[in-house]
C-alpha cells in the first residue's frame, strides 16, 4: 500500500490531487501546528480579470497562542461564507459546472460552521469526488500519533500498514530519507508540473486552487492532473 500525507488545506492545488491519484490512502496531518506566518493551509489562489485572487479563510487567533490545525475555528464564519460564494459567482458564474459546485460548497460551508478542519477536509473530498478520485482520507488524530517531522510520517505509514510513502518532489530537503529506509519504507516522489488548460480571464496562471481547474474543465480536469504528474523513485 502507498500512503501520502498533507496538512488539511482549504481548496488545495492540483499537486495535492496528483499525489492523491497515485496513493492508496491520504493521511491529513491535523495535529501539526498551524503556522504563524504564510501558509497554504487556509489560503489559496483563484483567478479573475486582473489575474490571481487570493482567498483566505479567516482564523481566530487573538489570545489563543499556538494552535494545532484541528483546533482552528473561523472568525466571522457567516459573513466570510457569503463573501466567498459571491466571489465564485462573480468570476466563475458562466462555468458549466458552477451551479453544482456552488450548491455543494454552500452545503459544506453551512455544515462546517466555524470548524476549519471540517471545512478543509470536506472541500478536499468534494473536489476529489468531482475528479473521480475515490482514495480514502484518514486523520492523524484518529491514529493517535503526536510525533513530528520524519518520525511522524514513518510511524503513520507503519501504523496503516504501508510499504511505500509518496512525498512531494524535493521533500528530502526537509526529511531524513534514511529513517524511511530503516523502517522498510520505499520513498517515491511526485513532481507536479501544471500542464496549461483553458482558463477564464486571459493568460494561463499555473498552480491555482483545483477549484479553478474543475470550474474550467470539469471531469476533464483529471486528465490534466494525470498529465501534470510524474513519479520519481528515491
Explain what this protein looks like in three dimensions:
This protein has helices at 14-21, 77-92, 98-112, 116-130, 140-143, 149-159, 177-182, 210-217, 221-228, and strands at 2-6, 25-28, 43-48, 51-56, 137-139, 164-168, 186-192, 229-233. The chain is α/β, with parallel strands linked by helices. The protein has one domain (2-233). Strands 5-2-1-6-7-8 form a 6-stranded mixed sheet, with helices on both faces. Strand 3 (43-48) and strand 4 (51-56) form a beta hairpin. Helix 2 packs antiparallel against helix 3 and helix 3 (98-112) packs antiparallel against helix 4. It is globular, with a radius of gyration of 18 Å. The model has no long low-confidence stretch (mean pLDDT 96).
Amino acid at each position: 500500500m502507498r500512503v501520502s500525507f498533507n496538512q488539511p488545506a482549504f481548496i488545495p492545488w492540483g499537486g495535492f490531487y496528483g499525489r492523491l491519484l497515485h496513493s492508496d490512502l491520504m493521511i491529513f496531518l491535523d495535529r501539526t501546528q498551524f503556522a504563524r506566518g504564510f501558509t497554504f493551509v487556509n489560503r489559496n489562489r483563484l483567478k479573475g480579470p486582473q489575474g490571481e485572487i487570493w482567498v483566505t479563510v479567516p482564523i481566530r487567533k487573538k489570545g489563543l497562542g499556538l494552535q494545532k490545525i484541528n483546533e482552528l475555528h473561523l472568525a466571522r464564519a457567516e459573513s466570510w461564507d457569503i463573501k466567498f460564494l459571491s466571489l465564485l459567482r462573480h468570476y466563475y458564474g458562466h462555468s458549466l459546472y458552477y451551479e453544482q459546485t456552488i450548491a455543494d460548497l454552500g452545503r459544506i460551508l453551512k455544515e462546517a460552521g466555524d470548524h476549519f478542519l471540517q471545512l478543509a477536509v470536506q472541500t478536499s473530498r468534494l473536489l476529489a469526488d468531482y475528479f473521480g478520485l475515490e482514495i480514502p482520507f484518514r486523520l492523524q488524530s484518529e491514529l493517535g500519533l503526536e510525533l513530528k517531522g520524519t518520525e511522524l510520517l514513518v510511524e503513520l505509514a507503519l501504523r496503516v500498514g504501508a510499504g511505500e510513502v509518496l512525498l512531494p518532489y524535493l521533500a528530502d530537503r526537509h526529511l531524513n530519507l534514511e529513517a524511511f529506509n530503516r523502517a522498510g519504507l520505499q520513498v517515491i516522489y511526485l513532481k507536479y508540473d501544471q500542464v496549461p488548460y483553458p482558463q477564464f480571464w486571459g493568460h494561463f496562471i499555473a498552480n491555482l486552487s483545483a477549484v479553478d481547474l474543475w470550474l474550467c474543465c470539469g471531469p476533464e480536469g483529471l486528465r490534466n492532473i494525470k498529465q501534470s504528474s510524474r513519479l520519481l523513485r528515491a
